[in-house]
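So, can you check what follows?
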Amino acid sequence: MNDTVLFELRGDIALLTLNRPKKLNALDYATNDRLLALLDAIEVDAAVRAVIITGAGERAFSVGGDIHEFSASVRLGVDEAVGAFCRRGQAMTARFEAFPKPVIAAVNGIAFGGGCEITEAAHLAVASELALFAKPEINIGIPPTFGGTQRLPRLVGRKRALELLLTGETFTPARALELGLVNKIVSHADLLSSAFDLASRILQHSSLAAARVITAVTRGLNMSIAEGLEIEREQFARMCATHDVREGLDAWIARRKPVYTGT
């Protein structure tokens, strides 16, 4: 059984744990593939309404790509390196970013390279006070490869992103919060409970509406405002015929708590 990523269902929230603590949860190919397989299964499982991802052990969320593994791919040539490493990592972070159920990163320690890129791609992020971030790829002569050159500037601005990308220097949870990379910082002991609390607050609402919000935001970020507004109208139209929108309106008028069914 592949245990590079652990899966645990707590109520209607899936907890995914990167499980290579001796390697500081480095993202080898098996881990990337396991994440994609789990997300595929979670997407079609109506019992799961949100995802939290964290790292095993006390030191790291993830230090990023497994350098020993992908360096072997680099030695095999450009096509192998791009296909086995870059495309695989980009597919994984893109899956998180566009996932129709809320994804929360619970950053428990080091989040370098690909670990930082998962944080960038996740819809929301909660950081432990012990977390540490970096975009260190330039230290080994490469740009980020899991989407970091694209998502980080969109999140924090071009000049601030370039400083992090071009220096490779570490930065603190406080800096990550200031930049907008994470939503909040909590004590290490409270990290998972805070992430689950955030997920539970989201899940008070219609899961269908949440999916529409995520889709509109994710797709609209890369388009003009006019194109983004068209996407917003499309997502609204998709909700209009659902039970959830009628229930939400009826409950508001009757001043009662809505009961959403996801239909």
About this structure: The mean pLDDT is 96. The radius of gyration is 19 Å. The CA atoms of residues 51 and 103 lie 5 Å apart. The chain has eleven helices and ten strands.
